[in-house]
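TASK: fixed-backbone design
INPUT:
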């Protein structure tokens, strides 16, 4: 199943949004179910005329008789999530880069308190009406323009330079306690800042960052030993342990069944 993942055309949005895609049930190759794996994006998924059920590791989408818009927000998951569609559906999903969504939404702490996935209810009141209009635009280029114009209209000026530095330190494998010392704050204060702005711990962020780096660098040619060394794992056993934790299968089976060349690393079922 080929899925077109669009990179923002607007240069400003490129700083905050990794990309987005449109899904529907048209055609013989329409998606009915897939498994998605942990990442560090903030993912906003909007469904048209649908009933959406969020379980611990499963999302179910089915048609609704109501003329409605339902949006969900996934920002912290450490296990695979199964997504199932029943009947007709239309969906738009936006991948915000780490910290990216903070520049558009002010009430993230409330949503982060849900621990994993929650209904996406931003403070701007026109969200459902405007997303509904975007769904009803027939031509994709015009739909893309409207989607980007809408999110650009919600962009706020915020100073998150300190948090960006914290994430860079985390990605460079500095010990968490050393990151706190480097910035002259307690580890508790550091953890509180990260939870407030990211919705997860630095340990979780680093684990998923390494995992995603391995996927991005895998081209079917490198051994697990090479991938371990290149991505700051202690050894191959460490890589395998993290892979099993985040995917529930070993790396060789994962790479055999998942097309890592796609922007969306999914296992179709």
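OUTPUT:
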């Amino acid at each position: 199943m080929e899925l077109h993942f669009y990179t923002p055309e607007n240069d400003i949005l490129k700083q905050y949004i990794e990309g987005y895609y449109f899904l529907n049930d048209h055609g013989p190759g329409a998606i009915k179910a897939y498994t998605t794996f942990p990442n560090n994006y903030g993912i906003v998924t909007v469904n048209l005329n649908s009933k959406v059920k969020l379980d611990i590791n499963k999302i179910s989408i089915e048609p609704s008789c109501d003329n409605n818009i339902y949006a969900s927000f996934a920002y912290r998951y450490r296990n695979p999530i199964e997504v199932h569609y029943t009947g007709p559906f239309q969906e738009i999903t936006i991948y915000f880069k780490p910290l990216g969504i903070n520049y558009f939404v002010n009430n993230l702490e409330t949503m982060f308190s849900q621990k994993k996935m929650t209904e996406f209810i931003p403070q701007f009141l026109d969200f459902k009406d405007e997303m509904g209009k975007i769904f009803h635009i027939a031509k994709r280029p015009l739909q893309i323009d409207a989607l980007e114009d809408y999110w650009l209209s919600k962009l706020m000026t915020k100073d998150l330079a300190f948090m960006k530095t914290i994430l860079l330190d985390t990605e460079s494998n500095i010990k968490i306690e050393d990151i706190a010392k480097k910035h002259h704050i307690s580890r508790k204060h550091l953890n509180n800042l990260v939870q407030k702005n990211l919705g997860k711990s630095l340990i979780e962020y680093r684990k998923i960052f390494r995992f995603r780096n391995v996927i991005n660098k895998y081209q079917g040619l490198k051994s697990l030993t090479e991938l371990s060394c290149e991505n700051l794992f202690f050894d191959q056993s460490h890589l395998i342990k993290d892979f099993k934790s985040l995917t529930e299968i070993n790396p060789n089976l994962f790479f055999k069944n998942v097309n890592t060349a796609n922007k969306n690393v999914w296992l179709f079922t």
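COMMENT: The mean pLDDT is 91.
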